[in-house]
Amino acid sequence: MVNYDIQVYTQMCTGCLRCQLVCSDLYTKAFNPSEARIQVITSGADCSIHFTEACNECGVCVDHCFHGALHKIKREAEK
Amino acid sequence: MTAGGFAGSVLYVDLTHGKIEKGPLDLALAEQFIGGFGLTVKLAYDTIKPGTEALSPGNPIIFGAGPLVGTNLPSTSRVYVVTKLPTSGTIGWCGGGGVNFGYLLKNAGYDHVVIEGRADRPVYLKIIDDEVEICDAGFLWGRGVEQTCEALWEKFGRPTGVISIGQAGENLVPFSMAFIDRLSTLGRGGFGAVMGSKNLKGIMVKGSRGIKVADRKRYKTLSETFLQTIRDYPYLKEWQDLGLVKSFPTMIPEETYKRMKKRRVACVSCPIGCKDVVEIPDGDFQGLLKCTSSVLNLYTPVLYGFKDYRESIRCMATLDSYGLDMFEFFGVMGLAKALADHGLISKDSLDTEIIIDSLQSMEIWARKISLREGLGHILAEGFNGIFMEFGQEAKKFAPPLVKGMHPYAGPGCAISWDLFGTMELGQVLDPRGPHVGSGGSPTYFARRPLEVFPRHLTRMGAPKEAIERVLPGLESPDQKQELRVGRLLTYSHRWFSTLGCLGICARAAINRFYNASLCAEFYEAVTGIKTDLPDLRKRIDRVWTLLRMANVREGLDRKAEALPEKWFEAPGFKDYVTEKPLDRRESEQMIEDYYEECGWDRKTGVPTAQVLKELDLTED
Predict the structure, then answer these.
(1) If you ran DSSP here, which 8-state letter would residue A75 be given?
(2) Given 3-state DSSP classes, what are the helix, strand and coil percentages for chain A, each rounded to the nearest 5?
(3) Which of B139, B163, B337, B527 counts the most CB atoms within 10 A of its CB?
């Protein structure tokens, strides 16, 4: 089980879809952004990012984000 | 069976008869011509009938996206078009950052689209995987580029890739362009008019098939190492923050740029991003949001005299909406003003004064040209149309012209650059004519020492013996050191062709990380087609030579590639190394060097029988 949350900074997203590309490749063995477990939509100055129910927070999308739109934030130890 | 990387199909659309067919990609042909730009050239060569008029139904439009497009290799989104262009009259190519269009075309299952004929009403082409339809575009006709794009996004949702034209393209203005996702420009030389002549307002595409690579293990190793190189690049963040402003820091003050920047936009797969969404922060146009291929483009009117950058942005928003080529527009307006000042254009026909540095005047003339109103109908025909209307005397007031177009770099041009390097010669020798980014090489940056050139030549794929021809004397301290710009340009063109065939972005921010050997490795890993550097070189030579043949077939000759006389008049161009004024004889030698290095006849520029045989281009 992962010990981090994925934090999204939509204002940093460029719409490059590197996250969707790598996610789809990992889970479908093909670069198919429509099958990715993270979905990014940019429109002019706006951007939305959401994760599908299938997302297991593996974090590969974060590892491939070059623009600082996705971050792994370590969970605090439960008290 | 489909090789990796390729989507596997070619879409054929006949607008005249409303026919749509899907055919398998010929993999043997793909191997010979690599894919992307290369295979687009081959399909164009086979489809365009010699002598076809650019704006006739018989002129086909061929789109292509290379085998790397759709993968996650960095900045592999490029989209290409080859067609006969109305301004230059050549078989020209148009290339643009694919934003969302490139990967979605591939994901829909198509490497290429061949569009022929002319629809009997305004239409757009709808491509959603196997569902391909020629649709009524009555609700889009008369709208601008951005409005058209937004309307299709509203109708089909996101993500949808859109290529659209504005009113200038609809009205066959030979300096109109098409735009990808209303950001990337496609086609100086009049591609917008070619689409307009077919009543084709736009193309929308959605795809969901996915792209597979042939050798996953090798791909993973190569791509991870490559991505780490980019991550480790010390200037990465600067490029990401500033985009192309980093290349031209004096053009836009960094503080101004940061005030208006709303978002960095990247084409799919690009780890850097160079496209911009900006918002005018204050003044009369406060709040105007503009999406652009680069914020630098928005400053083009400043190069022609605009004093206020906010008015410049507003002007570019207008030109982009009509789908007008900014350089050609300002060149044409400059000529029109000179003709008016000298009485060749009568005051009666000028209901609006031509004031080049006035937003109000330029917006009115952009409308008149795009909608062909009054004198705008004549100006809409570009330089050639103006010469036909006002006679030969008009020519002496014209800026330097190359293949009928207004070059953007050089004396008397938007960027009054005076050193004659590959970018400047490339404006003349590229079949499509003058264009930004023509013939890139280290000569992009003034006065770089010759010692840096061998590394760049090697990166671009030039063999060792060629480096000695490009830089005679470099290895001999006693010998005079020279830079043969014509020979260097050969390898710059080949490098740009390499990137185009694979689908890699040509912009300096990213192409700096690639080299020809790596391109061969990536191509082999993705497609499974055995390819080493010599193989790649040969295929690239084949592509570039076939494009030459397509134009030789159209009558392109040495005369059409003469440098404009005005480039030799003071203050003209200077030699890149010595900075002495460039003379005609030296420039002729550069052209001959270029032809010879390409394996073409040194005097005529026609590919020799020997080179055609070596490249397997001999007609059966």
Answers:
(1) P
(2) 25, 30, 45
(3) B163
Interface mutation vs chain B, best among A31, A49, A63, most B CBs within 10 Å: A31
- Amino acid letter, residue A32: N
Instruction: Give B12-53 pLDDT, tens digit per residue.
Output: 999 999 999 999 999 999 999 999 999 999 999 999 999 999
pLDDT tens, residue by residue, B249-284? 888 988 999 999 999 999 999 999 999 999 999 999
ipTM of the complex: 0.96
Task: Answer for the pair B163, B152: CB distance below 8 angstroms, yes or no.
Answer: no
Taking CA atoms, B311 is separated from B314, B410, B556, in Å, by: 5, 25, 40
Q: Which of A12, A13, A17 to substitute to test the interface with B, most B CBs within 10 Å?
A: A17
> Taking a C-beta distance cutoff of 8 angstroms, is the pair B124, B152 a contact?
yes
3-class DSSP state of B433: coil
CA distance A78 to chain B (A): 34
Q: Provide the 8-state DSSP code for B113.
A: E
Taking an 8 Å cut-off on Cβ atoms, the answer to whether B209 and A31 are in contact is no
Are the Cβ atoms of B158 and A44 closer than 8 angstroms?
Answer: no
- CA B62 to chain CA centroid, Å, is 15
Q: Are B178 and B163 in contact (CB under 8 A)?
A: yes
Take residue B584 and report the two structure tokens written for it: 């005609």
Handedness of CA B443, B445, B447, B448 (dihedral sign): negative
Quote the minimal CA–CA distance from A31 to chain B in Å.
5
Q: How many residues does chain A have?
A: 79
Closest CA to A31 of B380, B174, B389, B503: B503
DSSP structure string for B163-193 = EEE-HHHHTT-TTB-EEETTTEEE-TTTHHH
Nearest to B210 among A22, A28, A64 (CB): A28
Tokens of B302: 């400043």
- How much is the pTM? 0.97
Is B264 in Cβ contact with A33 (below 8 Å)? Answer: no
φ/ψ bin of B535: left (φ > 0), alpha (ψ from -120 to 50), beta (otherwise)? alpha
Q: Which of B244, B305, B307, B314 is nearest to B272 (CA)?
A: B244
| Distance separating the N- and C-terminal Cα atoms of chain B | 28
